[in-house]
Amino acid sequence: MAGGNDELKLVGQWASPFVTRVKLALHIKGLRYEYVEEDLGNKSDLLLSCNPVHKKVPVLLHNGKPICESQIIVQYIDEVFAGTGPSLLPADPYERAVARFWAAYIDDKLEPPWDRLFRAKTDGVRAAAMKQLFEEVEALEGGFKECSKGKDFFGGDSIGYVDVALGCLVSWVKATSVLAGAELFDAAKMPLLTAWMERFGELELARAVLQDVDAAVEHGRMLMAKNAARASN
Fold it and tell me: Any idea what the Cα angle at residue 223 is, between residues 220 and 229, rounded to 5°?
């Protein structure tokens, strides 16, 4: 992998799709990096000093300087290492704006109900979160059509910024489908998105960094059980 004299260190936690997002960008660019697994139940001085505002992963340290928030990190990687590997964001300003719109949609619209789904303390709250998540996901079918222009990926012929933004969630899409007992990406309603997920998941770089689905399912069950126990106390 490339990297030259640049020192890259990624502080993360294995189950976090946002950490996976950064891993995908680093692998696409072919960049060497050191990975540091963080215990979020006992946050390290490194994490707290690098991200004192949010105290969350991921954090990328580039030559000792911290960059926080996954989408910001991915854009930083794309800009700083523009001469290394393929570009993630389109060169055309309008297409770049469209890509940023859909990447923001993924975090703004999917992450809140997904988070509520696993943190819910009652079945009613969990069902409402799942209903909202299904509704928000459906809009991504149009997003894929707009960005891909009939090709295999959001980025067209190759992986782009939105592929990375959504691709980091593939294992959790599958795990959530198991936990909910219903396919989150419904092939009947979202044929383009479902086919994209299968293509993306088969990529060598995706297999290298995506979470094991069974492990994600177990982690999800643990989170749901923990929050259910809190509700009963």
Answer: 140
Burial of 160 (0-12, 13-18, 19+ CB in 10 A): buried
Query: Cα separation of 140 and 103, whole Å?
Result: 10
pLDDT at 120: 86
Q: Residue 179: name the closest of 140, 229, 126 by CA.
A: 126
70-97 confidence digits (pLDDT tens): 999 999 999 999 999 999 999 999 999 9
User: Residue 82: which residues within 8 A CB-CB, separation 6 or more?
Assistant: none
Q: Rounded to whole angstroms, how far apart are CA atoms 186 and 27? A: 29
> Number of C-alpha atoms within 13 angstroms, CB side, residue 87?
10
Indicate the pairing of strand 59-62 with strand 65-68: antiparallel
Mean pLDDT of 124-149: 93
Q: What are the structure tokens assigned to 9, written together?
A: 């260190």
Cα–Cα dist 208/103, whole Å: 22
Question: What is the Cα Rg of the chain in Å?
Answer: 18
Where b means 16+ CB within 10 Å and e means fewer, 99-111 reads bbebbebbeebbe
C-alpha 87: how far from chain center: 18
pLDDT at 126: 87
Tell me which residue of 83, 86, 85, 56 sits closest to 68, measured CA to CA: 56
Residues 213, 20: contact at Cβ < 8 Å?
no
Is-contact 206 24, C-beta < 8 A? yes
The two tokens of residue 147 are 């960005």
